[in-house]
Amino acid sequence: MHLLVVEDDRKLGRLLRRLLEEDRHVVELAVDGRTGLELALDAPGIDAMILDIGLPDISGLDVAREVRAAGSDLAILVLTARDTVGDRVTGLDSGADDYLVKPFAYEELAARLRALSRRSAVGLSRPGPRLVNGSIVLDEGTRRVTVDERAVNLSPREFALLECLLRHPGRVMTRDQLLDQAWPYGVSVTLNAVDAYVHYLREKLGAAGQRIETVRGVGYRMATA
Ligand code: CA
What we know:
Strand content: 15-25%
Structural class: alpha/beta
Shape: globular
Number of helices: 8
Bound molecules: calcium ion
Order of helices and strands: EHEHEHEHEHEEEEHEHHEE
Helix content: 40-55%
Radius of gyration: 18 Å
Strand order of the largest sheet: 2-1-3-4-5
Largest sheet: 5 strands, parallel
């Protein structure tokens, strides 16, 4: 997933980014509410936001409210330091989808993200946390890919590209869309980088890599048959 973390505790923010990247997510990090809000509204391709409530400028609740007011249906997981019913209700009232009380175990955060990802994927005909296409299986729970039950070791970038293609079988994903999904916002890359990484991805998938079809001049598409 392409995630936005809004957390002013820099140490926690960096830790979350590292752990999430180890799980092959693409991560944006903002250390205040306004930057977080800007990224949430402007950065394309973001699937979900992990949002601290106690921020130095505007509260995380205001960020959530403004994101919803702008009509965005971005999945929002709120982090709150205070385990009180009031905060919980406020968090969800402001448009958050779920909340987590600090301190939390990373595994708990990962589990909540999986639930949010399933919820936001409603309508994408996905029964479980596994994306299957031919012999390719991407398990969004374990963040692992196998081909014919053989583990394939993908880089975070390759993983994000494959995840995006697998989520939309038969649909052409433009190189712009793939770039938005798999690269952090503001990182300067050219569309050629998308081609290069799709090339690496195909190589690693072996024969199953043929299932990623090139749509000349546009982008790529995951085969459906
Ligand atoms: Ca804070």
